[in-house]
From TrEMBL:
Component of the oligosaccharyltransferase (OST) complex. This is Dolichyl-diphosphooligosaccharide-protein glycosyltransferase subunit OST5. The chain crosses the membrane at residues 28-46, 58-84. It is a multi-pass membrane protein.
Length: 112
């Protein structure tokens, strides 16, 4: 008995997946996650450093670094999920079902 998970990507997701060769998903995903983590640590370092000098904070820089970090982390995880054969959209639906107490939803799976 094997389980086949049907992949239903959104239009925006298909644009990213079609523009990159499938063999590069893991490399691109790891690179983007690494860049996002570096920016997240830089953001954290900046926040801790500004505890000594609160008047020197720059809201624009903080917002830019936070947006760039979250974008890199999100896209990196998207490509890593695609490389692993998981559909990010169905994972989000599963997380929603779990958080609202309805349990796992196995509608996307076929058994043959």
């Amino acid at each position: 008995m094997t389980c086949v998970l049907q992949h239903q990507h959104s239009c925006a997701g298909r644009v990213f997946l079609e523009s990159v060769h499938a063999e590069l998903y893991s490399d691109l995903g790891l690179l983007l996650v690494f860049l996002g983590a570096v920016l997240a640590f830089q953001f954290l370092y900046y926040e801790v450093a500004m505890l000594k000098n609160p008047s020197g904070r720059s809201l624009g820089l903080q917002v830019f670094v936070a947006l760039a970090s979250s974008s890199f982390l999100g896209l990196g995880l998207f490509f890593l999920y695609a490389w692993a054969g998981l559909c990010p959209q169905s994972l989000l639906q599963q997380a929603w079902n779990l958080s609202h107490g309805s349990g796992w939803d196995f509608r996307d799976q076929r058994y043959s």
